[in-house]
Specification:
Blueprint (H helix, E strand, L loop, with lengths): L1 E3 L12 H11 L3 H23 L5 E3 L7 H9 L12 H10 L9 E3 L6 E3 L16 H10 L5 E6 L1 H8 L4 H20 L4 E5 L9 H11 L7 E5 L16 E5 L17 E7 L9 H7 L9 E5 L27 H15 L5 H14 L11 H5 L8 H5 L15 H11 L5 H21 L5 E2 L10 H4 L5 E2 L6 E4 L2 E3 L3 E2 L9 H8 L6 E6 L1 H6 L2 E2 L5 H21 L4 E5 L3 H8 L5 H15 L9 E6 L6 H10 L3 E4 L5 H10 L7 E5 L11 H15 L4 E4 L9 H27 L1
Parallel strand pairs: 1-10, 2-5, 5-6, 6-7, 7-8, 8-9, 9-10, 11-16, 15-17, 16-18, 18-19, 19-20, 20-21, 21-22
Antiparallel strand pairs: 3-4, 12-15, 13-14
Helix pairs in contact: 1-2, 2-5, 14-15, 19-21, 20-21, 21-22, 23-24, 24-25
Length: about 750
C-alpha cells in the first residue's frame, strides 16, 4: 500500500505576505506591527496545514522555519551565542543573527546544497543561550489536536548535519548538542508528536571515517522513544545506508532510483521515497514513477513524497495571469504537485486507471521543443586562443581603484514606475524615458562619490536573472511565481523551455550612450548563473542551454564593445552551487569544462581587443579545483565576497599567488546587513589586504550588488571608504617617493 507525505512547505506566503509583514516590523518595531507579523505567520501556518489535510496521510509541521531551517533549529536547540538572543520576540533574535546587532556581526550566509535558497552558518561559541520556547510549534500542534489528528511529523535539521555545520568535534561539544536535541525531543513527545523528520543532507557516501564515527556516536544516543525518520536529499546515498539504524528512512530517488530495490533498505519500518522534484516546476513523469514501483509488494507500506521541501518552487500555477505561459500540462507548482502526489498514490494503489495519466504525459513529452546543438563543440576552439591579459594601467584607472558590483538601491520611484508599466498605466516608451533619467542620476551619484570605475546604472534591474531572461526567446517570466531566496528576499526564477535566443535588446544600449565615459563598466549575468537560477526543462540537455545563452551574451558583449565600453563584467555568482548540484549527474571535469568554455565563449569576439573582462563570484570555495577553474576562465579581474571572512580569503589568494594571474576586488561592505562599516573597520581591512597580498592589482568594492541597501547607507559607505583609500594611497605614494 502506498501513502504520501511531504518534506516541507514554503513560508513566505502566496502573495509574499510574510515578506511585507517582516519589513514593516523591521523598519518600525512596535507592538502593533509585531502582532500583525505574528498573525500573518499563523495564517501561513494554517494554510500549510490545510493544504496537507486535503491531500496527505501524514501532516508535517515545523516547516515554518524563518529565516531558514538551520538557523531555526539552532535557535530551538539554544545553540546561538546568547548575546544575539532577544527576550522580546523570536523574530528579533532572527534579525540580530541575519542583520547584525550593535557591534555583533551578522552570521555568514551561504547557499543550501546547490539551490538558490540560503542559510546562515552556525558557529561554535562558549556563550550559548539556554533552550528557547517552541515558538510556533505549540500553535501548530494545538490546531491539529482540535482536529483529532495523531499522525503528525515534526521536521528539523538532524543532529549530524548541525554538528558538522557548527564544527563540533570533541565529545563534550557533541554531548552538549545531544542533550539539547534529546530535551527538545522529550518536549515534542509530551505534546503528542509521533514522527521526527531528521533532515541529514550532509550524510552521503563520501564521508570521512571521522565523520562516520561522529554520526554513529550521535545516533546511538538519540532518544528512541520517538520514531525518527532519517531524511536524505540532494546527495548520493547507497553504501552508507548500512550505518543508518533509525525507525525510518526517506531517500531522494529523483537523483538515485536504483536504491528502491536495494536490500540495504528493507529493515526500515517506515520507508519513504522522494519521487517528484520539489525544486523544479515541470510536471512529474508518471510513467517513470510507476515503472520504478512495478515490482513492489502490495502488502508493504511505502510512503511517497517530493524529494525535498517545496520551498524552492512557486505556490500556485492558477495565480498566473500571463496568457503566454505554456499550457498547464507542462508546469506544476506547489498546489499542482500536491495533486500529483494524490494521483500517483491512487495509481500505485490501483485506484486510478494508469492509461489516462500515461497519455497525458506522453503528449507532454512530444510537445517539448527540440534544442539546437550548435555551440556545444567550442572547447577546442577556445583552447587554441591566445589569452592576452589587458593591463594598460587598468585602462587609465589608478591605485587601489574603487568600484561597485552592479545594482544600486531600488527606490520607491523605480518600484512605482515598474508597477505602473506592469499595470499598463505607463507606456513602454514613457517608462524608458523615466528610467533613462534614473540611470543618469545613478551615474552622477557614482561620479560625485568618487567611484573610480562606474557601472552602467543598473537602477532598473530588479533581479539579475529575470532582467536578462526577459530578452530571451524560449524563456518565461511568471507574474506571481515568487520563491524565497533568503530572509525577505524573493525572486521569480525564469522558466526555460527551449529556443533561448536574444530578442529586443537594442533599446537597452540607448541607456549606455549618454554615459560616455571611458571608466564605465557594463554588467551582464553569465550563462552558468542564468541557467542555475532558472527552472530548466528537464528534457533539455544542460550543455545546449548553457551554450545557447553564451551565444546570446556574446552578441551583447560585442555590441557593448562597439559602443566604446572597455570594461565588461560577466557575473557568475552561482558557480559553486552549479558544481554542487550537477556533481550528482556528471564528473567534475565535465562540469568545469562547461563553466570555462561557456564563459570564454561569451567574450570570444573581443578576446584580443583593448578591453578588460571582469567577473564576480559569491561563496567561493577555497580549493585547488577552484584555483584551476579561476585561472582557466580567462578574465582580467574577479571580485570576491569577503567582508565576513577577509583574512581567510587573503590567505587563499596569497598561498596560490592569484594576483599574478588576475586582478582581485575584495568586498569590504556586507550588503546583506544594515550595518555600514566604520572608517576604523575599513582602515583595518585595507591595511590587512596590503599586509597580506600587497596593493598591486587590488581593487576595492562592496561584497555584492547594492539593490537591498538604501542610498543613505551606500553614501555613507562610499564616504568612509574614500576617506580610507585617500589616506592609504597618499602613504603608498609618499613611501615610493622617499
Amino acid at each position: 500500500m502506498f501513502k504520501n507525505h511531504i518534506i516541507g512547505m514554503p513560508l513566505i506566503g502566496k502573495n509574499r505576505e510574510l515578506k511585507f509583514a517582516i519589513e514593516n516590523y523591521v523598519y518600525n518595531r512596535n507592538t502593533s506591527n509585531l502582532n500583525s507579523l505574528r498573525d500573518i505567520s499563523k495564517r501561513i501556518i494554517r494554510w500549510n496545514i490545510k493544504m496537507q489535510l486535503h491531500s496527505l496521510d501524514i501532516i508535517t509541521i515545523g516547516t515554518f522555519c524563518y529565516p531558514d531551517p538551520v538557523t531555526y533549529t539552532t535557535i530551538l536547540l539554544g545553540l546561538v551565542n546568547r548575546d544575539y538572543i532577544s527576550e522580546y520576540s523570536m523574530f528579533d533574535t532572527v534579525f540580530n543573527i541575519t542583520r547584525g546587532f550593535n557591534n555583533l556581526p551578522a552570521f555568514s550566509m551561504t547557499k543550501w546544497f546547490g539551490t538558490n535558497f540560503h542559510y546562515f552558518k552556525p558557529s561554535k561559541h562558549p556563550n550559548y543561550n539556554f533552550i528557547t520556547s517552541l515558538n510556533f510549534i505549540n500553535y501548530e500542534i494545538s490546531l491539529l489536536s482540535k482536529l483529532g489528528l495523531s499522525n503528525i511529523k515534526f521536521s528539523i535539521i538532524g543532529p549530524f548535519t548541525i554538528c558538522l555545520m557548527i564544527g563540533f568535534s570533541s565529545k563534550n561539544s557533541i554531548s552538549l548538542l545531544l542533550s539539547r536535541y534529546n530535551l527538545l525531543l522529550s518536549k515534542l513527545l509530551v505534546l503528542g508528536i509521533k514522527y521526527i523528520q531528521a533532515e541529514e543532507p550532509l550524510f552521503n557516501d563520501c564521508l570521512s571515517k571521522h565523520s562516520l564515527q561522529i554520526y554513529k556516536y550521535i545516533y546511538s544516543r538519540i532518544d528512541s522513544r520517538l520514531k525518527v525518520i532519517f531524511t536524505s536529499y540532494f546527495s548520493m546515498l547507497n553504501a552508507n545506508i548500512k550505518y543508518i539504524n533509525t525507525y525510518g528512512l526517506h531517500i531522494d530517488i529523483v537523483n538515485n532510483n536504483d536504491i528502491v530495490n536495494s536490500k540495504l533498505i528493507r529493515h526500515f519500518k517506515f520507508l519513504s521515497f522522494g519521487i517528484i522534484p520539489g525544486n523544479n516546476v515541470w510536471i512529474s513523469n508518471f510513467k517513470r514513477i510507476t515503472t520504478i514501483f512495478k515490482s513492489s509488494d502490495p502488502n508493504d507500506i511505502i510512503f511517497i513524497s517530493p524529494n525535498c521541501s517545496f520551498r524552492h518552487i512557486p505556490y500556485d500555477l492558477n495565480s498566473e495571469t500571463n496568457k503566454k505561459l505554456l499550457p498547464n500540462i507542462f508546469l506544476s507548482f506547489l498546489v499542482q504537485k500536491l495533486s500529483e502526489l494524490v494521483s500517483i498514490k491512487n495509481i500505485l494503489n490501483r485506484n486510478y486507471l494508469y492509461k489516462n495519466i500515461y497519455i497525458r504525459n506522453t503528449i507532454l513529452n512530444k510537445k517539448f521543443i527540440k534544442y539546437s546543438r550548435s555551440f556545444i563543440n567550442n572547447s577546442s576552439h577556445f583552447s587554441q586562443r591566445k589569452k592576452k591579459r589587458t593591463k594598460f594601467d587598468k585602462l587609465g584607472i589608478g591605485l587601489l581603484p574603487l568600484t561597485t558590483i552592479g545594482s544600486f538601491p531600488q527606490t520607491n520611484r523605480v518600484r512605482s514606475l515598474r508597477k505602473m508599466l506592469d499595470s499598463k498605466q505607463l507606456s513602454p516608451s514613457r517608462y524608458r524615458d523615466y528610467i533613462f533619467d534614473e540611470i543618469h542620476n545613478c551615474y552622477k551619484f557614482q561620479y560625485s562619490n568618487k567611484v573610480d570605475l562606474l557601472t552602467n546604472g543598473e537602477i532598473e534591474r530588479n533581479d539579475m536573472v529575470q532582467y536578462f531572461c526577459k530578452f530571451l526567446e524560449g524563456c518565461l517570466i511568471t507574474n506571481n511565481g515568487w520563491v524565497n531566496s533568503y530572509c525577505t528576499r524573493c525572486v521569480k526564477p525564469p522558466i526555460m523551455y527551449g529556443g533561448l535566443t536574444i530578442k529586443n535588446f537594442n533599446n537597452e544600449y540607448k541607456y549606455i550612450k549618454i554615459l560616455n565615459s571611458i571608466n564605465l563598466k557594463y554588467i551582464i549575468t553569465g550563462p552558468i548563473t542564468l541557467t542555475k537560477w532558472s527552472y530548466i526543462n528537464i528534457n533539455l540537455d544542460i550543455s545546449n542551454v548553457i551554450f545557447s545563452i553564451s551565444n546570446s551574451i556574446r552578441s551583447i558583449v560585442l555590441d557593448v564593445y562597439n559602443l566604446g565600453i572597455r570594461f565588461i563584467q560577466i557575473d557568475e555568482p552561482a558557480i559553486v552551487e552549479f558544481i554542487d548540484y550537477y556533481s550528482l549527474y556528471y564528473d567534475y571535469s565535465y562540469i568545469s569544462s562547461l563553466i570555462i568554455n561557456s564563459f570564454r565563449f561569451c567574450y570570444s569576439d573581443v578576446v584580443d581587443k583593448n578591453i578588460q573582462i571582469h567577473t564576480h563570484i559569491c561563496y567561493s570555495r577555497y580549493s585547488q579545483n577552484m584555483v584551476n577553474l579561476l585561472k582557466s576562465m580567462g578574465f582580467d579581474k574577479v571580485s570576491f565576497e569577503s567582508s565576513r571572512n577577509l583574512s581567510h580569503i587573503l590567505d587563499f589568494v596569497a598561498s596560490n599567488s592569484l594576483l599574478k594571474y588576475f586582478d582581485i576586488g575584495f568586498g569590504l561592505y556586507d550588503v546583506h546587513s544594515s550595518n555600514v562599516p566604520s572608517i576604523a573597520k575599513l582602515t583595518s581591512s585595507v591595511n590587512l589586504i596590503i599586509n597580506k597580498v600587497g596593493f598591486s592589482n587590488v581593487w576595492i568594492n562592496p561584497d555584492c550588488g547594492l539593490k537591498t541597501r538604501s542610498y543613505k547607507e551606500v553614501s555613507l559607505f562610499l564616504k568612509n571608504i574614500n576617506y580610507v583609500l585617500t589616506n592609504v594611497r597618499n602613504k603608498i605614494r609618499s613611501s615610493k617617493n622617499s
